[in-house]
Amino acid sequence: MRAFGTDFAVPPGYLNTPSVGIPPAPVAAAVAESVERWRTGAIRPAEFDPWVARARAGFARLLGVGPGDVAMGASASQLVANVAAALPAGTRVLAAGGDFTSVTFPFAANPGVTVTEVPLDVLPSRVEGHDVVAVSVVQSADGRIVDLPALRAAAEAAGAAVLLDASQAAGWLPLDVAWADWVVAAGYKWLLSPRGSAWLAVRPDARERTRAVAANWFAGEDPWATVYGLPLRLAGDARAFDLSPVWLAQVGAAVALEYLGGLDLAQVAAHNVGLADSLLEKLGLPPRGTAIVSLEADPGRSAAAGIVSSVRAGRVRVGFHLYNTADDVERVLRAFE
Fold it and tell me: Are residues 325 and 239 in the same domain?
């Protein structure tokens, strides 16, 4: 099918983007070409450096930050660990109850840190008395969106640092998050990139509060000059927190992020939310203004109706993205008949 100016090979009823996004044809083609070069021995390591740079710049553009403020990694939790491991003993972290554990586990794994969970809807009002707030912009389980303006105001008033996980938001929700100390996102969901791609935006004044827990050759100022020997010599910007790249993932991410960066994300959000709220309305439920819908439903019945979805927190979770249509809404409705 063709949607938003490109082609997708998405089957009807695919509503599982919150788990795995489906790439546009040019993304899959770029990865396939690299696989063929690998298969035939034509590949050279340095040829992936431009892909990494393109993907980094694409993510930076989506967040409204500079490429030098973005670290590249393989997963959200691995990048969050650069923040969590740097926190000194006695740090008090505030989190949303039931948030995805890639956000909370890295902090809980630091024995000197206390993590307190509160309901998402009251989180901004509980910031006082905490040093760091770590929360997903959009909740994985049910699509609820944190009140970002209220959180920003509360954090600034309390002097608290903020880490945002945009894995369920970046790619469909226009984001004004450059104010946050750290913003992380995995690429394989709404960003339509291969798994093994993720990024962490680090505000310049937060670099000294971030630790390179997986310091490696690629995190050097000139990676090809830091492949052997000491002393430690990391890049002077957020690239100091880079992981050695997952090559094929970066190829796909470069193409996907450039494609998404050329879209009007307000239109993407209107499309996605319009379908999600249409489903809720036809089920007699109030609109929620998010691309993710969590339903009390029989997973077996949903699958029998040709719906590809996930079960999260005991409920069937569906998500609407670029390639979904009103026909997908009708397919879900038929599962409730």
Answer: no
Cis amide prior to 26 (ω within 30 degrees): no
pTM: 0.97
Residue spans of beta strands (DSSP E) within 158-263: 161-165, 182-186, 198-202
> Which CATH number goes with the domain that contains 203?
3.40.640.10
Q: How would you classify residue 107: left for phi > 0, otherwise alpha for psi between -120 and 50, otherwise beta?
A: alpha
Domain assignment of residue 57, given as a range:
29-261
**Whole-angstrom distance, CA of residue 314 vs CA of residue 296:** 8
Q: Are residues 127 and 256 in the same domain?
A: yes
- DSSP code string of 275-296: HHHHHHHHTT----SSSEEEE-
**DSSP assigned state of 17:** T
DSSP 244: P
- How far apart CA 171 and CA 155 sit, in angstroms, is 25
Inter-CA distances, 28 with 18, 24, 161, Å: 19, 7, 38
Cα gap 121→142, rounded to integer Å: 13
pLDDT digits (tens, 9 = 90+) for 270-318: 999 999 999 999 999 999 999 999 998 888 888 888 999 999 988 999 9
How many domains are there within the chain? 2
- CA–CA distances in Å: residue 1 to residues 5, 18, 165: 10, 20, 30
Of 326, 330, 298, nearest in space to 314 by CA: 298
Show Cβ contacts of residue 53 under 8 Å, excluding neighbours closer than 6 positions: 67
- Element holding 107 (H helix, E strand): helix 101-108
pLDDT at residue number 305: 84
Q: 234, 261, 288 — which closes off a domain?
A: 261
3-class secondary-structure state, position 214: coil
